[in-house]
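The following record pairs a protein chain with its ligand, adenosine-5'-triphosphate.
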Amino acid sequence: MSEAKFITLEGGEGVGKTTNLQFIEHYLASRKIEFIRTREPGGTPAGEAIRNLLLGLEGLGPEAELLLVFAARAQHVDQVIRPALAAGSWVVSDRFTDASYAYQGGGRGLDPAAIGFLENWVQKGLHPDLTLLLDAPVEIGLARAKRRGGPADRFELEVPVFFTKVRQAYLERAECYPERIKVIDAARPLAEVQADIARHLDALRPS
Ligand SMILES: Nc1ncnc2c1ncn2[C@@H]1O[C@H](COP(=O)(O)OP(=O)(O)OP(=O)(O)O)[C@@H](O)[C@H]1O
Ligand SMILES: [Mg+2]
């Protein structure tokens, strides 16, 4: 029996994470691979409540933000991700810990060592098998998110330099973990982006 895989989708605002997650769901379902779809922050009742705080609460400091993200993640890992993988189900998550390095580390300027401590403490060796980093110039992602509509959340209201730092931090993560994190040029048409994603998924499946 093949081992269940843990896949995460990362990238800045509006690069296409949620859109491509649907593509991955279709890919897995058509190959009869059992999976669950989840997201961060969120994925559990407590996590979704924390998500609302993170996206809406005014006056939240960077440290409080980081701790809330990891509080949600602790619930998510223990109650959803580990049990699913143990039961043989693949897990596909819209964002995971690389987003903490990008947003709270890069964007907010928090010490990556603090993030690393929380990562080890909460995840206890659990890491994604594959991370698809959708990368596009900040203006492209923001324009797409804007076109999609809906009210802007606390992050979407940030200044452009914040998103530039987020993007940079994501790319640095990918340089550090080239085996796990695959950078995909998400500025291209969706069909090209998804051809790349399929290629990475093909490589992940045992032959
Ligand atoms: N490669 C692409 N080319 C053109 N439009 C795209 C592409 N990928 C996604 N889009 C469109 O851009 C918008 C944002 O995509 P999506 O919601 O998937 O991004 P996201 O990364 O999940 O955003 P957020 O960070 O806000 O959750 C959607 O309207 C989607 O249809
Ligand atoms: Mg999304």
